[in-house]
Target: UDP-N-acetylglucosamine 1-carboxyvinyltransferase
Amino acid sequence: MDSIVIHGGLPLRGKVAVSGAKNAALPILAATLLASGRHLIHNVPAVQDVKTISKLLTTLGARVTELGGGDVEVDTTGVERFQAPYELVKTMRASVLVLGPLLGRLGKARVSLPGGCAIGARPIDQHLKGLQALGARVELKGGDVSVSGRKLKGTHVYLDMPTVTGTANIMMAAVLAEGETVIDNAACEPEVETLAAALNAMGAGIKGAGTDRIEITGVRTLHGSEFTVIPDRIEAGTLLVAGAISGGEVHVTRCVPENLKAVTAKLREAGLPVEEGDREMRVTGSRPLRAVDIKTAPHPGFATDMQAQLMALMSVSEGVSVITETVFENRFMHVAELKRMGADISVVGNTARVKGVARLSGAPVMATDLRASASLVLAGLVAEGETTVSRVYHLDRGYEGLEKKLAALGARIWRLK
Ligand code: EPZ
Model:
């Protein structure tokens, strides 16, 4: 298992480009199952989760070809299998994203129930509620969920909470259903909006994606497509925090500032000047850093996927920051590791109280989940001495060569195989 070693204390300076969004690429690749033909997807990030879903699509009968430079061709003509095996699903719960497309394309799907994961139970009851509302039969047996239904009928679904992949699954199942479907209390994340755009590029009839009410007019068939994945807003936010925490100046390019408004607002509240261009942002890591309170929420609220990274930043701010995690029930695993580095954090329920300290000290720490890993790397950038983050396979799931990007900005950081 690889580790990443960081020697802290160096301010990062320079320009860095953001890769394609993992959480947009995964549903878009799954959506190609809906349309028999050739799909060309650009700006796909070279991350482990994309490799996993590519393997899954191949298992189902698709042909996936990496053309280089982030271009991936998916030929779904040969898709005829409808089962997503446990050995793949257990490594990536987002495999559940093939439920909707397989149901729409083949009239059936069987996916090993995604276990919970480090950050929470992460049930899929809303996904299943939506598919059932479209007329699918749902059966839970032997650790698998099976859905079946030849002719789905448009319906009205009101989600109990704005689930991102739940909205994606229901939208994908509805595009080939007969008639109109409305999803209310839908997730508004940019990744949902871009998935709808990708489906429309295949010939679907979707309106309102990106708002909490999505309207889908069923069509008879879909066709091959060409589409470009949006930049990863969480990677962009992580790189901005790297500039901020290291006291340098980082210029993030190929990003969409509009998709990071809540994070940018918090960085500015903390006293950090953030400049925005059309497709770029620049942060100056000025001091003193003011402690700010953060409460995660569904988009356009503060992204839960940026909570761990801001906690690392608040660990070296002046004052007390109260961070409340409202989306997942167990997303504070980075706290114990940050405390090993000298952070002063106390957790009660879903709230962490972070009292800024003058400095963190490098230490051996362990990654527990994707964004916790990023948080520990960020803390290592500012800590005195050497930090070794182990189990960085968590990081590799969602970041394309993060340590290389940080090294190019002047960090003393390298990977230990
Ligand atoms: C997506 O996960 C992202 N993953 C997550 O990113 C992200 O943290 C999350 O959305 C929230 O923004 C992908 O897009 C692949 P949810 P998802 O369904 O869809 C509860 C990362 O770091 N819920 O919006 O699984 C659920 O338990 C990952 O890149 C139900 O109760 O998240 C959670 O508490 C981590 N029943 C809340 O809703 C359901 O049927 C939000 O979950 C579905 C969800």
